[in-house]
Amino acid sequence: MKALIVWGGWDGHEPDKVAEIFRREIVAMGGSAEVYNTLDAFVQNDLETYDLIIPIWTMGEITPDQEKAVTRAVAAGVGIAGCHGGMCDAFRNAVEWQFMTGGNWVAHPGNDGVEYTVHIIQGAHPIVEGLQDFTVKSEQYYLHVDPAVKVLATTRFPVVDGPHSPNGPVDMPVVWIKYWGKGRVFYCSLGHKASIVEMPETLEIMRRGFRWASGGKEAALRSA
């Protein structure tokens, strides 16, 4: 597995620390990872030489050329995988990015420190096979989600009261997969801080997501 990790954007999500965690995990899985602190990495590298792109960039601005380079590479078979705001609150004005990734953050009622349960959908996909429900104390992401995604884990809203509460209980996706052309897309909404990414449950989900998303490249080549 050859991965491209690109980090930056809002410092509050500790993107530099998360990038190092993901680099470490890719290497531990027997892969290699190139790490960049600039979105120019998307246009200065041949993205189709990678198996996996890992964006870690919250609340940034991406140029049309940078966005197009990623969406085209993924459509050609390169996987993309990420977590929290680093992938699905990355570029609020980039609708093609949101279309590709499958969703976008809109709220986290109660902000950081909300205790909630992540419910694993048993039998949904090998990514979550054998995993059990777990509790996390962090931001609980409310997202607008593409109905085409396959949901692998959810969380129940509302936990914290707010203007969304009168709508009643909602099962919000936490982990999902989808396809973009020949490419595989993986997302997990956990990861507000590096400490949440380092949780054993989060790391296991991310490792499995990395493996699955990166495997689309070989599948695309076989079908060519």
Structure description:
- By secondary structure, the protein is of the alpha/beta class.
- It has helices at 15-28, 41-44, 64-75, 84-88, 95-101, 194-197, 200-223; strands at 2-9, 32-36, 52-58, 79-83, 103-107, 114-120, 134-138, 142-145, 150-157, 170-180, 183-188.
- Strand 3, helix 3 and strand 4 (79-83) form a beta-alpha-beta unit.
- The longest helix is centred in the last third of the chain and has 24 residues, at 200-223.
- The radius of gyration is 16 Å and the shape is globular.
- 45% of the residues are buried.
Number of domains: 1
Quaternary state of the chains: single chain
End-to-end CA span: 20 Å
> Helix tally?
7
- Largest sheet strand order: 2-1-3-4-11-10-9-6-7
Order of helices and strands: EHEHEHEHHEEEEEEEHH
Shape: globular
CATH fold node name: Rossmann fold
Judged by helices, strands and strand pairing, the structural class is alpha/beta
Name of the CATH superfamily? Class I glutamine amidotransferase (GATase) domain
For the record, the CATH architecture stands as 3-Layer(aba) Sandwich
For the residues shown, what is the average pLDDT? 97
